[in-house]
Amino acid sequence: MEAVVYICLGLMFIFGVLAVMFRSILKSAIALAVASAMLGIIMYVLGSVWAAIFEISVCSGLITVIFISAISLSNTDKQDLAKLYEDKERMAFLPTVLIISGVTLLLVVTSPAFSLPAAVPVAEAADTLRETLWIHRQVDIWGQAMVIITGALTVVALFKERE
Amino acid sequence: MQVIEYSAVLFFAVPLAILLINILFPKQLAEKFSIYLAGIAAITQIAASAAGFLLLSAYRLHEYEFSFWDMTNAGSVRFGVNTFSLVILFCIGLVSLASILVANRTVDKKRAGYVNLLMMLMLGMNGMVMVTDLFSLYVFLEIVGIASFVLIAMFKSDTGLEGAFKYLVMSILASIMILTGLSFIFMQTGSLQYAHVVGMNLLEGQSSPQLMLIYAAMTLMIAGFGIKTGAVPFHSWLPDAHQSANTAVSVLLSGIVIKVAGIYGFIVLTGLFSKLPAVNMALAIMGTVSIIIGALFALRQNHFKRIVAYSSVSQMGYILLGLSAGSILGLLGAVVHVFNHATFKSTLFTNAAAVHEQTGTYDIDEMGGLEKKMPVTGFSSLAAFMSTAGIPPFAGFWSKLLIIMALWDSGFQLFAAIALFASIFTAVYFLRLQKKVFFGKLLSKFAGLTEIGGSIKFAQIMLTVVTIATGLFFPFALLYLKGIGIL
Amino acid sequence: MNAFVETAMLVVGFLLIIAGCYGLIRTYHLLKIVIGVEVAMKAVTMFIVLAGFINGKAALAQTFVITVIVIEVVVAVVAVGIAINLYNNYGSMDVRNLKKLKG
Amino acid sequence: MLNSISLFLGSGANIIWFMIVLPVAIGVVLWFLGKHYIPALILSLVSAAVNLLFAVSLYRSEGFYLVFPFSSCGLDIALNVYSFSSMFLLFIAAGFLLIILYSVVFLKEKNYAGCFMLYMYISLAMMNGAFMSDNLGVMLFFWEGLLCTLFGILLINNMHNPKTAVKALTLSGTADLLLMLGIIITAYQAGTLYISQMQKLPVSGISAFGFVCMMLGAIGKAGSMPFHSWIPNAADDAPTPFMVAFPAALEKFLGIYLTARIVMDIYDLQPGSGASIAVMTIGTLTIVLAVAMALIQKDMKRLLSYHAISQVGYMVLGIGTALPIGIVGGLFHMLNHVIYKSCLFMTAGSVEIQTGTTDLRKIGGLAKKMPVTAICFVISALAISGVPPLNGFFSKELVFDAALESNVVFYLGALLGAFMTAISFLKLGRAAFGGEYKLPSAKKYVRESSAGMFLPMGVLAVLCVLFGVANTLPLDGLLCPALGDTEVYSGWPHSTVLVLISIAVLLLSLGDHLYGSKKSGSALDAADHIHYAPVLKNIYNAAEKQLFDPYNWLMHVANGFSALCVFIERCITWLYDDGVVGIVKGAGTLLQRFNDGSLSRYLVVAITGVAGIIVLFLAII
Predict the structure, then answer these.
(1) Structure confidence at residue C1 (pLDDT)
(2) H or E element: which one contains C94?
(3) Distance, CA of C43 to CA of A29 (rounded, Å)
(4) Domain extents for chain A?
(5) In the predicted structure, residue D70 carries a pLDDT above the cut 70
(6) What is d(CA B133, CA D137) in angstroms, rounded to the nearest whole number?
(7) Which residues of chain D does B226 touch, with a Cβ-Cβ cutoff of 8 Å?
(8) Distance between CA atoms of D528 and D540, rounded to whole angstroms?
(9) For C29, which DSSP code?
(10) Which of B122, B297, D84, D616 sits at 20 to 30 Å (Cα–Cα) from D402?
(11) C100 within some domain
(12) From CA D581, how far away is CA D584, in angstroms rounded?
């Protein structure tokens, strides 16, 4: 199982960086979806099944749909695209930045001043997710509902009255 | 005690009910009556928070926790109010009322949309102040954020969309930081409820290497809430967003949103991690830099609302300084300054709306001598500016005094001196504003100018009365607080 | 699983956040800003799962993740909505247009 | 009574706060009421009566000690209401009630009435605060507050010509500076700012300097030399109610209160010591010099104002002896002086309102037309001259007694003062109320003033008689219990010889007056033979040219000093006008240019901020 985590982690990293570096917005969106799916697998392996399902369905699904519809709503022409993609050189430094910061981070995490807390085995019954979500975290459920209502109001306010 | 719980329920029930009514009503009716419904919500909130405060002090309690229906399990998240959060809830009601009164003049179309989002904003802010769990705090913070982006953007002007987008991007950065910080704390504690986080005593084993994660979490959360507050160097979005929004929305944003979204976060943070000297030091430095840089920016602006927005940056610095003292006196000073800032900043934005309605411009270079034609606006602006500059016996003086005293007591004498000195800057940039807009000779093109009337005038008078009354009766308030055992 | 995997997840997460912020800062395209944000959010989601895995409160972490995902989607909708409205006003997705408010 | 008020206000101690805050609030309301006569009258009377009620209830209570910790620098607001201070609260409240009634009636229809009332009420609040403060620093705050209202009230009618106001501010301000210096030295020596914690300090070495400074500040507030010279100017410029309120009553109370506290609680002043002699010398000089100036005045208010200075001398002399009898006498004289001097100024105001002037050359024989005013004037004039059995007689006898016990020189000086006082009041009374009926040319007729004006006058005149005939009332009822003195001073004076000497002096002055008026032919010029006596003539000339005015000396020194300051100031001005402003503006412009509206720049700045916080954390950990 460890191997799966390593592979997915690596893929997620690569696709995440690609999502930033791709010139085409469509490719970026797809790379993001792939990274998201990899994260879903990691979650599944770590035991967070429901979170994994949400991640794969909502993040890699719904958000990609949103991006694609946004791309289709904005028919950027060639000239404009050329201007927008002047950032080719600007993005070229990303690997350098990542290498430098990666080395720094490695130095930090391997130093004796740093350690993660020891993992505690999961000591919860099978149906705790339901209980946690619906009873202990009821406030969050209410918050989610309000966020969704706000989202709906946003769509009404930003799209409905468009001339 | 039941009564407090009912009054607390009102904070959620009333905005939700009004939202529902507004959505279910036919569109024409909603456009017409929604603003009055919103007024009812704001007034209910003011009344409920005042009643709650009095009840709480009558029972000699500092805080009261409660839950709705069956959230009684030990591990579940509960709501709670305490004396300080009730003051903030009161401010929410007051500023919302001011915003609604201004909106009655400045918002023509999309009134229903404005009211819906305002209700969501109030819900979000009320929730933030009342929850007792860091993650729920984050959830309600996002509601506040989303509602404010859309409130800025919904009028679809170029500048409005621009301000909203800048605010949005900076805000998401803040969310990322706050959430990362939360996950690190969660990693250590296994729970994010305030009581558990405090009970865990994260800082007990000072030598533990795992402390590094806590420090990282602190750094990220300070930066995150700093962005939400608009403290320097995280301030850049604030003047843009507050300038470009409809003035009714600016009243909300500057008057209360930055304080609930940012300062309240800091209040929670300092409450949970006050044992870390680095946190206090970071807040003190951020506060001092905000005061000075915000004032320098405000000195060079020509846009009425932008000056007032930069003044918010500067004043947030004072509140941060008060919190950095880490004592109950400092907290009191900060909360009182939140209240004072809510009143006088709302007054100033209301005046901006009045001036714009009557003259059609925000550019202070094009104005002059308006005091003669608009005496109410001129006077309320003067009162607000005196309060901001901390001139006794206006309200701002007392809160600044408390903050400086708290700093002095906590050993931050240098910061206290700088804060005192920087008050001069405040006076200077507002004198400049006052002089260019209200004093001096009346320009000939304004010969036919009239005073603003209607709801904006009412808002000006209401807020000015609150400012002046707070200043005059503050010593009594202090005695009262002493009497109920807070000081 | 040993502590090494967890450390690796931490490092990769930080790197993804850095990558996302880099994209956020350097790009000219409004939608790419949103994509940069999403990349960083992936890392944050992973941190929460990791935290739940380490402290043994996986169920609590899952509820957090679900809430965060919902919020993430709504924020993305708002961001894209504002970006499209900006596109309608300017006819371009260039972030350099946003310089009317300054000083 | 305290109990019922306590029920109303929550706690008896709250009265203390109300006595400071309520007057200010009422003053603001009266300010807004402005020229509205009836509501202003009702509100001011009711509020002054409530203040009196509070004062009475405090006086009858056991006393309170309240501390409101205000900051860490030892400036806690400590309020101590005990027998002595509550007695003064009572005095001031009673006096204020009468004065405010008189002022409202006097200022009817005047534009500046509202403003005047605001200052009066703020003064009341400051005064109450000063009496109650236990902390010298806090007392200084209230003290200076009174200086501000004094300045403001003098400015009300003289915005275009603020000379008197500036003079009063400069002189009183100097006195207050000395007081501040004295307080600093005293606090340093005593190791505390709280009067109730002070051991009585010996008057020697540095402490002596502190004593002198504090004493000068205190008696300067009461109007003693050398800080007196603004009072006659104010008599010319300021509205009469101001004269009734400030130089005659309120400032006397405050100044003498502190003088008494210094002698009784703060310093250990030994009778016959050098410091005591110095204070008594100041007192005697004040008596003689001021009354000598009063002698030659031809204007009613101006003459009275010089007497207001002169009478302080008796109080200072009495308290300066440091003998129990002297202190009682001084305080009793203060009380009496406030009663009869207020009454005298009120009669002057009454004359002024009816005839439009107080210049004695233009008026005469008013007794027939204004009988009540005349009767009040006569009673209070007899009282100030020290005619038995009026109140002034008894207090003067106590002071004489104490002065004689210290040194015969002071006794003789005091007697000389009494002699001239009597002469000048004979002159004043006969010129204004007796003799031929005369009016300024613009006026055709006069009539008696309204009830609102002669009611306070009448009350005060009755008090003059009452406190004289039944002097056991103030002495055994008020002063001695408050001072904790068990000896009996009331009743007829002990020494018949002194009484006889005093009466002889009075008869002498009557004779002198008759001689003078016969020589010059009119009552008004009855003192001219002293005025134009060979040597005195030159001295008086110089005094009239204000050569002896310490204010003028001060101004000469100040002019030289200011020339030096101008040069330094120019240098600093350049720094402020160009230097600092340039830096601030430049910094603002730089920041503005940097903030070019680009989103990525905003983000970079924010992330730099995060880096800054990380660095800070690393530095601190």
Answers:
(1) 47
(2) none
(3) 16
(4) 124-163
(5) no
(6) 48
(7) 609
(8) 11
(9) B
(10) D84
(11) no
(12) 5
**Count of helix runs (H) and strand runs (E) in chain B:** 20, 2
Contacts of D612 in chain B (CB under 8 A): 233
Would you call A118 and C70 a contact, using CB atoms and an 8 Å cutoff?
no
Which residues does chain B have within 8 Å of residue C37's beta carbon, measured at their own beta carbons?
A: 169, 172-173, 176
Q: Which two tokens stand for residue D166?
A: 């500036």
Q: Which chains touch A (3 or more CB pairs under 8 A)?
A: B, C
Pull the structure tokens for residue D361: 């050359």
* Residue D29 CB-half CA count within 13 A: 13
Q: Is residue C68 part of a domain?
A: yes
User: pLDDT tens, A62-115?
Assistant: 999 999 888 888 776 666 666 666 655 677 888 888 999 999 998 888 887 787
- Helices B277-299 and D581-594 pack at an angle, to 10 degrees, of 100
Question: Tens digit of pLDDT for each residue in B58-104?
Answer: 777 777 777 765 555 656 778 888 888 899 999 999 999 999 999 99
Question: pLDDT tens digit string along B31-57?
Answer: 888 899 999 999 999 999 998 888 887
**Average pLDDT, whole number, for chain B?**
88
Q: Which candidate, B379, B397, B265, places its Cα nearest to that of B323?
A: B265
The pTM assigned to this predicted structure is: 0.66
pLDDT class for D512, splitting at 50, 70, 90?
confident
> What count of CB pairs under 8 Å joins C to D?
27
Tokens 């960083």 belong to C40
Contact A28, A20 (CB under 8 A): yes
Q: Name which of D597, D600, D604 is nearest C101 (Cβ-Cβ).
A: D597
A147 to chain B: closest CA residue: B143
- The DSSP string of D509-537 is HHHHHHHHHHHHSSSTTTTHHHHTSHHHH
In chain A, what's the furthest Cα-to-Cα distance?
Answer: 62
How much helix, strand and coil, in percent to the nearest 5, is found in chain A?
80, 0, 20
Task: Show the domain range for B23.
Answer: 2-483
DSSP tag of B296: H
Instruction: Name B59's Cβ contacts closer than 8 Å, sequence gap at least 6.
Output: B1
- Residue D606's pLDDT is 92
Which residue range(s) make up the domain with C50? 3-93
Residue C49 sits in a domain whose CATH number is 1.10.287.3510
